[in-house]
Amino acid sequence: MFKNFQEDKQVIENLEQKNISKISKEASIARAEADKEIEIAKANANKEAMDIKLKTEQEIAEKKNALAIKKAELKVKADTEKAKADVTL
Known about the structure:
Blueprint: H1 2-88
């Protein structure tokens, strides 16, 4: 009877150890999955921020270019008016 009790106790301890190992493994996998999701979210946020920054920089460059063109057009117009005025003097 004592031998059966010892064997039963050993079986229970083995099952307990397997259960602990299984739970530990599942927790490690869940933690790894959560870490992966966090890294993906960070990467997506960084990409979105970079896309917005690039778009903004492009818009600024386009507006600066448009301003430079407008200034050049106004200078040509002013120079033309000045030349006309100089001819009539």
